[in-house]
Write a structure and sequence with these properties.
- The longest helix has 26 residues.
- With about 450 residues, the protein is α/β, with parallel strands linked by helices.
- It is about 30% helix and about 25% strand.
- The N and C termini lie far apart (about 75 Å).
- Strand 8, helix 6 and strand 9 form a beta-alpha-beta unit.
- Helix 1 runs parallel beside helix 4, helix 3 packs across helix 4 and helix 3 crosses helix 6.
- Strands 1, 2, 3, 4, 5, 6 and 16 form a seven-stranded mixed beta sheet that branches. It has a five-stranded antiparallel beta sheet with strand order 17-18-21-20-19, with helices on both faces. A four-stranded parallel beta sheet has the order 10-9-8-14, covered by helices on one side.
- The protein is built from 13 helices and 21 strands.
- It binds flavin-adenine dinucleotide (FAD).
- The site of flavin-adenine dinucleotide has 35 residues, from helix 1, helix 2, helix 3, strand 4 and helix 8.
């Protein structure tokens, strides 16, 4: 039998890699993890976690306005970007340290350097040597995609840099219509930055329910964010005061900063996967089966590098399923159906299951329950922020196929709704649940009237 340095070598200490390494190491397997940047990966270092801190920071401006409406006298307010960054970096360092300790406590060895494959059982780690392993797990995540052919693109930042800007710009153009673009637009807007979103498509958040897409656009505009749709960038030009963005509509918009959030790609470049015989998809993702096994028997991949559902909890579950299958002798797959997701815009979005359009495609006839309203917290002081609750129900079985919410704390609401929907709850069962009052979420269990879409030309 072949002898290897390790039972498992993991490349990438992000959400998926760390979970897999810990579970495998705790079985007594000899495990090493290579990380080229900081332990914790995208989520902890330059994704979900620092972003959520920025969301919290940016929500205060609206909070102050609300407080005034409720009788508070608020003096002059000022946001100290440098102080915030310092506190944010301290907390990120603390969290990254916890990840390191968790790996060490589980018995995994950490190698701080970039790794690539030499062959199906050999990993070369920059400056550290060459190691062999029985199994190799690729968990290298993704990275921002940039249109490198766009003249002047070097003047734009990505989400990676947005976490470390030396100073908060007075104005920013955020290119992109996905969740990262919208979240950052709301963050900057909340921090007082004059913010414009520019997206080539006809509507933001492709793949989400159409009511969610149009409603969030209206709510963001109501908050003062300018949203320009259906146009493309032709060039970026450095100016005395910032960057001028030229677009196919013939406009030139000058802002102090330009951020591109136009997509992410699997981070497989330079990993030596092709040399090891690992098949990639056209987008460069590692092709895997339900057990996260690649086209090479002993090489596996989990998380964003496989481009299945690019979310932290999914990467964690895929990593865990892999480790259980390979090291606990318990074949385990992760079910990618009905995974809930959140968007930390302002207001926030929570969504689980099918959009109305996808449900109609798949099931034909569906019933829709839709409520758009101003929550009582807003009406009290004349605040304008609205909320949306929507259920998509299969006519034949009355099963709830999708639930979509826009509201403060919508992600918290959707986490709970996702349990029932994953279990296959029907509308009558849902309705049998008594409301919790007075809450915003009670709207979800009190929607009885089917929504009839307006005919063309009808006025709301
Ligand atoms: C701005 C932003 C916000 C996000 N917000 C959310 C959110 O709110 N909720 C959510 O669920 N998801 C969110 N995500 C997505 C989430 O961060 C990812 O889905 C998740 O981190 C994927 O985990 P992973 O283990 O696949 O990869 P990663 O966490 O990206 O980890 C991969 C690790 O591999 C390392 N690496 C890569 N190549 C090598 C190499 N050759 N050698 C050594 N190390 C290497 C990298 O440095 C990295 O640390 C967000 C992402 C971004 C960018």
């Amino acid at each position: 039998m072949a002898q290897y340095d390790y039972d498992l070598f993991v490349i990438g200490a992000g959400s998926g890699g760390v979970r897999a390494a810990r579970v495998a190491a705790m079985t007594g397997a000899k495990v090493a993890v290579a990380e080229e940047h900081r332990v914790g990966g995208t989520c902890v270092i330059r994704g979900c976690v620092p972003k959520k801190f920025m969301v919290y920071a940016s929500e205060f401006s609206k909070g102050f306005e609300t407080a005034r409406g409720y009788g508070w006298d608020i003096g002059e307010t000022r946001f100290d970007w440098e102080r915030f960054l310092m506190e944010k970096d301290k907390e990120i360092a603390r969290l990254s340290g916890i990840y390191v300790r968790n790996l060490q406590n589980a018995g995994a060895e950490l190698v701080h350097a970039r790794a690539h494959l030499k062959d199906a059982h050999t990993v070369e780690v920059a400056g550290k040597g060459t190691f062999t392993a029985d199994k190799i797990l690729v968990a290298t995540g993704g990275k921002p995609w940039m249109p490198t052919e766009l003249p002047g693109i070097e003047h734009a930042i990505t989400s990676n840099e947005a976490f470390h800007l030396e100073r908060l710009p007075k104005s920013i153009l955020v290119a992109g219509g996905g969740y990262i673009a919208l979240e950052f637009a709301c963050i900057f807007n909340g921090l007082g930055v004059d913010t414009t979103v520019m997206y080539r498509g006809p509507n933001v958040l492709r793949g989400f329910d159409d009511d969610i897409r149009s409603f969030i656009t209206e709510e963001m505009e109501q908050r003062g964010i300018k949203i320009v749709l259906g146009t493309q960038h032709t060039k970026l030009e450095k100016t005395a005061n910032g960057i001028a963005n030229h677009d196919t509509n013939g406009h030139a918009l000058e802002t102090e900063q330009v951020m591109f959030a136009v997509g992410r790609i699997p981070y497989t470049e330079g990993l030596g996967l092709e040399a090891a015989g690992v098949e990639l998809t056209a987008e460069g993702a590692v092709k895997v089966d339900d057990y996260s096994r690649s086209s090479v028997e002993n090489i596996f991949a989990v998380g964003d590098v496989t481009n299945r559902i690019n979310l932290t909890p999914v990467a964690i579950r895929e990593g865990e399923a892999f480790a259980r299958s390979e090291f606990l002798n318990t074949p385990t797959t992760f079910d990618h159906e009905t995974v809930a997701s959140a968007i930390f815009t302002q207001p926030q979005i929570g969504s689980v299951g099918l959009s109305e359009a996808d449900a109609r495609k798949k099931y034909g006839k569906v019933d829709v329950y839709l409520a758009k309203f101003r929550p009582m917290k807003e009406t009290f002081y004349g605040g304008q922020q609205r909320a949306l609750a929507k259920l998509v129900v299969e006519c034949r079985t009355e099963r709830i196929l999708g639930c979509h919410v826009i509201a403060p704390d919508a992600p918290e609401i959707i986490q709970m709704a996702a349990i029932a929907i994953k279990m296959g709850v029907t509308k009558p069962q849902w309705d049998a649940t008594c409301a919790v009052h007075p809450t915003l979420a009670e709207e979800l269990v009190t929607m009885r009237e089917k929504h009839v879409p307006m005919a063309m030309g009808q006025v709301a």
